[in-house]
Amino acid sequence: MPFPPVVGRGVLIDRLVPDDATTLARSPSNPANARYQGWQSPLSEAAARRFIEAQVDSEPLVPGSGVQLAIRETAGGPLVGDLYM
Fold first, then answer.
1. Cα angle 54-24-60, degrees, rounded to a multiple of 5
2. CA–CA distance from 24 to each of 1, 17, 29, 62, 63 (Å)?
3. For residue 28, how many other CB atoms are within 10 A of its CB?
4. What is the pTM for the complete model shown?
5. Of 59, 60, 51, which Cα lies nearest the Cα of 25?
6. What pairs with residue 85 in β-bridges?
């Protein structure tokens, strides 16, 4: 079942897409952020892209599994953050 975007005032949560790899790689590559995350640091853009592509069939809210999701300000907008569900 596809994950529908979650829309709120000024925020949209949806799937990461391969074009998010550059931005996704940036956060865990910053040592100040990496200490709070379980990511490899630094995280290459290629590794971020592989991670995103490996989650295509993953669904959030399934017991025993999880998925990294994108936080955007608008549909189709740039990645401004991410979260794990």
1. 50
2. 24, 10, 9, 23, 25
3. 21
4. 0.81
5. 51
6. none
